[in-house]
Amino acid sequence: MCGIGGIINLSQKATLIDYSDISIMRKMLSSRGPDAEGVWRSEDKNIILLIQRLSTQDNRQIANQPCWSNDKNIVAILNGEIYNHNEINEFLTNKGYKFFTRNDTEVIANAYHYWGKDFLKKIHGQFALVVFNKISKEGIVARDEHGISPLFYADFGDKFYFSSTPESIQLQSKQKLNINKKALSDFMISGCISEGNTFFDNIKYLGSGHFLEFKSKKKLNDPKSFVSPTEFLSFRDSKIKSENEYIEEIYHIIKEHVNSTTKGDKEVGIYLSGGLDSSIVLGLFKQLSPEQNIKTFTASFENMENKELVGEHDNASNISKFYKCENTIIPINDYLLLKSIGSYSQPSADILELSNHLIAKEARKNNVEVALSGEGADEMFFGYDHNLALVSYFKKGYEHLSKKYKLRSNFAKNISSSKAKIEDLFLVGGGNIDLENNRKSVFSEEVSKTTLLKDSIKQIIDSFNLVNPDDVDKISVLLDYYLKVPELHLRRAEGPSMDEGVELRFPFLQKKLKDLLYIIPLDIKIGNEIKDKSLLRKVAKKIIPDKLLSPKMPFGASGTFAFRTIFCNHHSIMKEVILNGRYSKLNLFNENFLKNRIQNQSDFDNCYFDVFLWKIWNIAQWYEKYSN
Question: Considering only CA atoms, which of 473, 452, 421 is closest in space to residue 188?
């Protein structure tokens, strides 16, 4: 991936754009693209585009961005990868277009020239892109349907800013930092932020599968979707296949995408957690390239009490040895964790930003600039207990799942299943519904009055055109896929990795696999056993020996165990910044609630890793950094 940014004038009154107007952005995005920098400004000085390039496709100087269409009228910049760019190149070549590089961005420029905005439905990959027609003075900004590549923007009335990171917009535009209170409440409740909000009150994120149309010196249009989240519904009448047929089809689709995600001009590695998903990626890579060595990287946590490593590093090492790969274990201690607090683009919901950051740093030292990850498999294959618990609660014939999978809220015990809707019990990714229902005891009055996350979730569910709660199996997975994956899992993976100049790619996040899984009958997806990812485990038998598939503790759980005493050991530091730091003057939380929560961590024997307090600590430290 790369770092992209720019400014577009939206009114006749806007001041003409100078190269110095993106100087801060250039500096802040440079780590995302260390290979080359490109800047283009229109002759009338009403638009400027910036690209900091990581040259994964055609590393020759001639292939540096921005790229142009054949007639030199359309300019394009791209952060990410277009996996089917060769096919589109061939199609356009047959239509008379000429290409001078192997860069997928040149394909984007000519695809927009040929199809207009409909080219977005032709391309497959992970991308945030901008194309601009310098003759008509119009263009689009777009983000891939999986939300892998980030794209943030701010409409200041006369000027439109966009960037791969929100803080670069904030600092470049020199706006006063105000915290978005709706974003804060969403974040505290679920770790995700809905409705395009960010912690920066005047900066939005472009949703996955959305684009913005703009015209120089004209008012900006609202974001539109270029992909329907329920396109798979058109396949409902498809012929039902046997379980073995589906297993074979899934196997070949994932294998095909592992192959496409390893293409390019950079050395590829794998973030290997030791679990099922990343092991499948490694196993398929070795099936495709049995003689090729690949480096794997595994994070593990140093227990604060006995200094022993906690995690799945032994299993990851065994898997790497079996495939004759070089595995590097990255130990993470409490000193590194403390340094990370508040250091990322937005406050951290958990400790996985740090894990991904340190893995990327080690990968880069080992000359790996592209890495594969197993993210997305849990959401697509019923890998979470909350998805299976919802199925057992709402779906007749699946009550047996409740023996193992329970809804996570006290509220669920007191509501009739005949009256409940999904949003009453599920706030994406196992969000804290009890906290949502008791906001006044946690937040200040002003924050408590913001739109309920439950209402935001209901809006998303309504857009799916499914029956709530009868289609619970599809709705819960879609919610996680379109909100939790891009705005939590990928946020904590893509950004920290790109800070070190390592591009992450995700073989499970692809349209063909997503659409297939949504039409597979539920009884085949879940199976007869009371086990998560039942169907994927059957696919794995074609790839990985059973002896390597030992049960894995959730990665985050290893960290919370290792760092059980971090709040107690650093109690005075935490207490000071939370109760007396700059952010405390904003009065975002109920003060008595904060004091009680902090006090609970003063007892060494009873302290624990409080995820809620971790989020607040990060908010406080993050505000110290960006409010200067």
Answer: 452
Which residues on neighbouring strands pair with residue 7, listed in sequence order? 48, 161
Note every long-range contact of 16-22, with CB atoms under 8 Å and residues 24 or more positions apart, other chains counting: 16/44, 16/45, 16/46, 17/41, 17/45, 17/46, 17/47, 17/48, 18/45, 19/48, 21/48, 21/172, 22/48, 22/50, 22/172
129: left (phi over 0), alpha (psi -120 to 50) or beta: beta
CA distance 623 to 508: 35
* Interatomic CA distance for residues 471 and 390, integer angstroms: 11
For residues 23 and 171, what is the distance between their CA atoms, to the nearest angstrom?
10
Q: CB of 339 within 8 A of CB of 618?
A: no
Buried b / exposed e along 121-147 (16+ C-beta atoms within 10 A): eebbbbbbbbbbbbeebebbbbbbbbb
What would the two tokens of residue 142 be? 């777009």
Q: Which residue has the tokens 């589109």?
A: 88
pTM of the model: 0.95
Between CA 212 and CA 152 the distance in angstroms is 11
Q: Give me the chain's average pLDDT, please.
A: 92
- Residue 234 has a pLDDT of 45
Least confident of 16-25, 43-52, 154-163, 484-493: 484-493
Share of the chain above pLDDT 70, in %: 97
CA–CA gap between residue 127 and residue 36 (Å, rounded): 18
In the 8-state DSSP scheme, what is residue 488? I
pLDDT digits (tens, 9 = 90+) for 1-10: 689 999 999 9
pLDDT at residue 372 in the model = 97
Tally the C-alpha atoms within 13 A of residue 291's C-alpha that lie toward its C-beta: 0
For residue 547 the two structure tokens come to 């002896």
Average pLDDT for residues 69-78, to the nearest whole number?
97
User: pLDDT class for 411, splitting at 50, 70, 90?
Assistant: confident
Phi first, then psi, for residue 52 (nearest 5°) are: -105, 115
Written as six digits, the tokens of 485 are 């994956």
CA distances from 115 to 5, 87, 88, 99 (A): 24, 15, 11, 17
The torsion angles phi and psi of 474, rounded to 5 degrees, stand at: -80, -40
Q: What is the pLDDT of residues 201-253, one digit of tens each?
A: 999 999 999 999 999 888 888 999 998 655 544 445 467 889 999 999 999 99
Contact 486, 103 (CB under 8 A): no
Q: Please give the pLDDT value at position 553.
A: 63
Phi, psi angles (nearest 5°) of residue 202: -100, 10
Asked if 375 contacts 507 with a C-beta cutoff of 8 angstroms, the reply is: no
Distance in angstroms (rounded) separating the CA atoms of residues 36 and 59: 9
**Distance (Å) of CA 273 to CA 164, 279, 298, 356, 626:** 27, 8, 6, 11, 33
Pairing of strands 224-225, 268-271: unpaired
> Residue 171: which pLDDT band, with cuts at 50, 70 and 90?
very high
Strand partners, 67: 76
| C-alpha to C-alpha distance for 360 and 362, rounded to whole angstroms | 5
